Amino acid sequence: MYTIGVLSLQGAVSEHINQINQLGAKGIQIKHPEQLSEIDGLIIPGGESTAIKKLIDRYDFLTPIREFSKANKPIFGTCAGMVLLAKNLLDSEDSHLMLMDITVKRNAFGRQKESFETSLHVYGIENEIPAVFIRAPIIIEAGEDVEILAKIDNHIVAAKQDHLLVTSFHPELTEDSSLLQLFLEMIATSKKLTV
Amino acid sequence: MNKLLGTETVKRGMAQMQKGGVIMDVVNAEQAKIAEASGAVAVMALERVPSDIRAAGGVARMADPRIVEEVMNAVTIPVMAKARIGHIVEARVLEAMGVDYIDESEVLTPADEEFHILKSEYTVPFVCGCRDLGEAARRIGEGASMLRTKGEPGTGNIVEAVRHMRKVQAQIRKVTLMSDDELMTEAKNLGAPYEILREIKKNGKLPVVNFAAGGIATPADAALMMELGSDGVFVGSGIFKSENPEKFANAIVQATTHYTDYDLIGRLSQELGSAMKGIDISKLSAEERMQERGW
């Protein structure tokens, strides 16, 4: 059974943990960097990216998360998680973990009143899935190694690069767990590679 | 592609993204920037913080839209603003301005002494105060997407927020253990919509997040409210009425994230300067207690 950690500094943590447990994996809260050695994959949840960024810095998570990624261990970023994983942010010097070769625009659809839900076709998932966008970011540029998984109005809203997965939306706010299933498959693949 | 705006999931989800965070009252762009830099998950744009509203007396209304706009332009985190209880037009104005969340708040002078706003009609989500499960369920029934304790705003005294959080939690536990045939009478006794009470019984928790508010003045207060089961905290007068707002804001954010790390909270509480001066609630007359507003 895989253990998946959810970075628990701020944001929608319990929603991810519930979904992980429902799929038969073990979800744990990650509050300290040393806990990263106990897990097979890391989820950086939705929340306020500026607040989570400050707490990542304050509790010295930056280098440990980069090393976790260097060891090819999968990381899944939803919404704020996507912002934090991006190499570049539009009109901002605040890019943070800089692990994924994407440029992200924050609050790309506007303020909360423009937040929406829809159904979306995601590459590799058979049926359309429900997707909840809350003050959501989009990917405006993606490097060659980035696989585009979903688009809305021609904007990239889900993508994968090797062991990194990001979505603009919140699969943890819905009953659908197909993206988490995809993440579990990425963990299985990374395990095979490292054995 | 069909985009659905302002759905229950979208409105409640916005509050879920705030969990584990601190929402701070601010009265101008400069304070908003301090709040954002300290790691606040949102700011509440106001004309006066509750303790000044208390001191000023008179009718407290929605903030001057210029202040709200100034704050919205100053930060990238979400901006909330308060409308008077029952004041449909103040709420619509704030919605039109693009405020991310509206607090239908007892801190302002109520505009309607009988009815709250029908919040389900709005695209913008609302947060409302509650002292017990009946009040919580009524607000959810009207469409509130987030709750908070009422506490006693502007006092720097945590006792009422503790009372309200404990009461709601205890009543949830009671309802969860009840047999199905007892539930209708409990709904009547609490003044709670039956369907919402049934949902709470089934899930063992509220269908929306519940923050603490009204009297949080120190990092230990914030941690206490988290320990009692709050999903996050609002700090009103506590930050910008303290001696060193930047330090205070930082310390409250950290104490909320690591609310069981008592060493850390001890260290954070050192050299903070003095907290806001508090008020003994029993010295307030009934008319001075904001928590009695709303029904």
UniProtKB/TrEMBL annotation, chain A:
**Keywords per UniProt:** Glutamine amidotransferase, Hydrolase, Lyase, Pyridoxal phosphate
Active site residues of this protein = 79, 170, 172
What reactions does this protein catalyze?
A: aldehydo-D-ribose 5-phosphate + D-glyceraldehyde 3-phosphate + L-glutamine = pyridoxal 5'-phosphate + L-glutamate + phosphate + 3 H2O + H(+); L-glutamine + H2O = L-glutamate + NH4(+)
Instruction: Share an example GO biological-process annotation for this protein.
Output: pyridoxine metabolic process
The EC code for this enzyme is 4.3.3.6, 3.5.1.2
Q: Which SUPFAM superfamilies match?
A: Class I glutamine amidotransferase-like (SSF52317)
Superkingdom of the organism of origin: Bacteria
Pfam families, per database record? SNO
InterPro entries per UniProt:
Class_I_gatase-like (IPR029062), PdxT/SNO (IPR002161), PdxT/SNO_CS (IPR021196)
* Molecular-function GO term, any one: glutaminase activity
| Residues that bind L-glutamine | 47-49, 106, 134-135
Pathway noted in the entry: Cofactor biosynthesis; pyridoxal 5'-phosphate biosynthesis
* GO CC annotations, alphabetized: cytosol; glutaminase complex
On subunit structure and binding partners, the annotation says: In the presence of PdxS, forms a dodecamer of heterodimers. Only shows activity in the heterodimer.
List the HAMAP family.
PdxT
Purpose = Catalyzes the hydrolysis of glutamine to glutamate and ammonia as part of the biosynthesis of pyridoxal 5'-phosphate. The resulting ammonia molecule is channeled to the active site of PdxS.
The entry's family comment says:
Belongs to the glutaminase PdxT/SNO family.
Q: Name it.
A: Pyridoxal 5'-phosphate synthase subunit PdxT
Which organism is this protein's natural source? Answer: Cytobacillus horneckiae
TrEMBL record, chain B:
Kindly give the InterPro entries that the UniProt entry links to this protein: Aldolase_TIM, PdxS/SNZ, PdxS/SNZ_N, RibuloseP-bd_barrel
**Statement: the UniProt record of this protein carries the keyword Lyase:** yes
Residues that hold D-ribose 5-phosphate according to the record: 25, 154, 215, 236-237
> GO molecular function of the protein, one example?
pyridoxal 5'-phosphate synthase (glutamine hydrolysing) activity
Instruction: Give the matching CDD domains.
Output: pdxS
Q: Which residues cross the membrane?
A: none
Q: What pathway is this protein a component of? A: Cofactor biosynthesis; pyridoxal 5'-phosphate biosynthesis
Query: Which positions are catalytic residues?
Result: 82 (schiff-base intermediate with d-ribose 5-phosphate)
Kindly list the positions annotated as binding D-glyceraldehyde 3-phosphate. Answer: 166
Question: Which Gene3D superfamilies does the record cross-reference, listed alphabetically?
Answer: Aldolase class I
Concerning SUPFAM superfamilies, the annotation shows: Ribulose-phoshate binding barrel
Tell me the Gene Ontology biological-process terms attached to this UniProt entry: amino acid metabolic process; pyridoxal phosphate biosynthetic process; pyridoxine biosynthetic process
Q: What is its EC number?
A: 4.3.3.6
- Enumerate the catalysed reactions: aldehydo-D-ribose 5-phosphate + D-glyceraldehyde 3-phosphate + L-glutamine = pyridoxal 5'-phosphate + L-glutamate + phosphate + 3 H2O + H(+)
Q: What class of enzyme is it?
A: lyase
The UniProt keywords, alphabetically, are: Lyase, Pyridoxal phosphate, Schiff base
Report domain PdxS/SNZ N-terminal positions: 8-213
Subunit composition and interactions: Homohexamer and homododecamer. In the presence of PdxT, forms a dodecamer of heterodimers.
Q: Which family does it belong to?
A: Belongs to the PdxS/SNZ family.
Which NCBIfam families does the entry mention? Answer: PRK04180.1, pyridoxal 5'-phosphate synthase lyase subunit PdxS
What is its biological role? Catalyzes the formation of pyridoxal 5'-phosphate from ribose 5-phosphate (RBP), glyceraldehyde 3-phosphate (G3P) and ammonia. The ammonia is provided by the PdxT subunit. Can also use ribulose 5-phosphate and dihydroxyacetone phosphate as substrates, resulting from enzyme-catalyzed isomerization of RBP and G3P, respectively.
Q: Which PANTHER family match?
A: PYRIDOXAL 5'-PHOSPHATE SYNTHASE SUBUNIT SNZ1-RELATED
Q: What is this protein called?
A: Pyridoxal 5'-phosphate synthase subunit PdxS
